[in-house]
């Protein structure tokens, strides 16, 4: 018999208190933070779904591994355990540790990309796009059309549009494309997976034109499990086998180990090109540290080595995807449209559909995110025109394709009762949607403005 209750595949070994905060305290915190949820103090948040990056709980095996961390400046045992874990899954020869994923992106794009070039991707995430644009290149999104339609039920909405990839290569020329990248799962598009069929098709295009192919592999394990569930011919494969096949199709990857590395900090750049790896290590020494620690403590590398094993356990992945879908289903029942089908790490609320009277230039997703916090102390993040809009000379924004609020679920951190509470908060906000108004941005930075922007309610 199959039971309906979702059981966490772990026992709670220690707990951390969370503080109930009053409506008046939440209102004051919003004012102080300029209505930017990034500006809230952690203890002002009851349920924190801002990100799943580095916010999860460590296992007992990871805590134990920390005790064996080797803090040698050069050549530590921790590095070699970390390197072996990465190579075992990816098959990539050159492993370069970094303090987190954006550092790997910065190093890769600094050594591989020059001003005026174009980097195609299904959809670049915020730090990826910023690091490409920082060197004067264009980050071009080529996701399939279904990937921009929240209600579409395509099983692999993260796939790249192969025709548009070929058209981009024809338009700008092979010499102006330093590499092709794919984000798995496609975070900005709703945490949607990419099929192996699509990865093979992109590989074939890259081979025809002699282009390197890289993965942004932050959530590779979740993507592998979606392939097992949805792609014909993979039902009997293990997540590890599928992940290895994914990595066998690429020349390199960047990785934030704060996601599917199950760690609180860390990342890496891995590739096969020894010459590029040497250039990357030269930059690493300037910005991160010696090549065998790369900005990490030895115990951090041991945590990642264990996490890369645990993240591919099927019981964990089954629970991870099902618990996320559970919240998405509750939001839909409350009348809040979501990106469908649910992604692996987060639920994406469709603010454009819920708040059609608020135009993109008045940031409907920011407005919805603020109300979730105001109502119940739940912190999510805007993924819309605040994050991905393009400021124009006249002071307006070119809107983002979608206006979403991402509720990212930290790994092994919240129980089903926490998620039921979040569902109640979503329903309460949905019930007063007609009273919600937009915002004006009054302060912004030139890069990654969503982290520090300040707003005023209209």
Describe this structure in words.
- The chain is built from 16 helices and 16 strands.
- It is α/β, with parallel strands linked by helices and about 450 residues long.
- It folds into two domains: about 25-50 and about 315-455, Aspartate Aminotransferase, domain 1; about 60-310, Aspartate Aminotransferase, domain 2.
- The strands form six sheets. It has a five-stranded mixed sheet, sandwiched between helices. Strands 9-14-11 form a three-stranded antiparallel sheet. A two-stranded parallel ribbon has the order 1-10.
- The longest helix has 20 residues, at about 315-335.
- The radius of gyration is 21 Å and the shape is globular.
- The N and C termini lie far apart (about 55 Å).
Q: Which key features would you list for this structure?
A:
458 residues, Aspartate Aminotransferase, domain 1, Aspartate Aminotransferase, domain 2, 2 domains, 3-stranded antiparallel β-sheet, 40% helix
Show the helix and strand layout.
Blueprint (H helix, E strand, L loop, with lengths): L22 H10 L14 E2 L11 H8 L9 H14 L3 E5 L2 H12 L5 E4 L4 H9 L3 E4 L20 H11 L7 E4 L12 H14 L3 E4 L3 H11 L8 H10 L3 E5 L10 E5 L2 H14 L10 H13 L3 H20 L12 E5 H4 L9 H13 L1 E2 L1 E3 L1 H4 L1 E2 L5 E2 L5 E5 L7 H16 L7 E5 L10 E4 L1
Parallel strand pairs: 1-10, 3-4, 5-6, 6-7
Antiparallel strand pairs: 2-8, 7-8, 9-14, 11-14, 12-13, 15-16
Helix pairs in contact: 1-14, 2-11, 3-11, 4-5, 4-10, 8-9, 12-16, 14-16
